[in-house]
Amino acid sequence: MSTDHVLTGGSGPSPAPVEADPGSAAAVRRAGPAAAAEATAATAALLAAARRGANRRLATAWSLLVLVLLALLVASVLLGGLRNIPAGDVLPAAFGMRTGLADYVIHRIRLPRALAALLGGALFGLAGALYQRLVRNPLATPDVVGVSAGAGAGAVTVLLLAPALPYGVEAAAVAGAFAMVAAVLALSRQGGTVDTYRLVVIGIGLAAVASAYTNYLFTMAGQQGLAQVMRWMVGSVSGATWEGVTTLTAALAVCGICTAALQRPLASMALGDELASGLGTRVGAARTAALLLGAGAAALATSVTGPIAFVSLVSGPIAARLVGTERALALAPAVGAAVVLGADVLAQHGPLISPVPTGAVTALIGAPYFVLLILRRGQGAPS
Asked: What pTM, to 2 d.p., does this model score?
């Protein structure tokens, strides 16, 4: 029988008096304002300590990944062909201070390729983490829901039909990605809301349509365009130029600033749409902005590197395991950069497999992980 029932005159034996828990909210209220203030200060101190610890983990993870990226960058630039280049010419050639073979190999081929892999991987990682954070589903990434395939289809169209059009490949890639986002959202909407399962399944189906269109372009391409279309079908940083590196640098800077501006809305939306709206977040506008931002990041990366598969899928979960889900978005670009740059080094110099396109290596890594995610979610295990 409840205590309230006894105090209001209910019948039955009186319960034995129970000593109040000094840590409960009622005990704090009875102890007076000073104890309440002390409990509030202790809670705030615990939260601040947890925040500092999480920030230290993020800083540590970033520091380690920067070291890994520097090592991979040096390996990508220096490995191969060193016997034909004097050691004293390698570093000057990287800064454009040499001519001839050293300038051609280091400054014209290897350095743009390495930087394109690094920057493109960062954009793919950022796009994947945005989609996973927004939809709260590790399968909802730009390459899985068809955004990368749509961007690749648009880019290949311009590449074959109007290759001389200034910034035509980039514009077509963004247009193809945005068209895919609009189609996936329209078809996955059910009862006024976007169903995440339908979003993933419909995205996979539309990605197959975009891939079929790209295959059709491949069959219609002339002899000169075959190599370019093959690069776009698999994804590779081979043949990257300084113009492409400039495009990726500008894209990463803009996308990084926009992501920072969306951090607060995304954090509130993680609590649920209703609570986020109660906190003043314009949920619909924030969701649309995040979807378009992720699509734009993936499209611009695709316009230079081609649709390198599964980088967006694995970057977010790896970052979440390193620093937690709340800060995974801040680390995912570095993880994506390390994945693509490491895959490219392996694609160039790996035993038994080199030389192969970079996308072939990421597919070997990402495809089994994708199947594992599907199986775990089918069994009800947390992802």
From this structure: 0.81
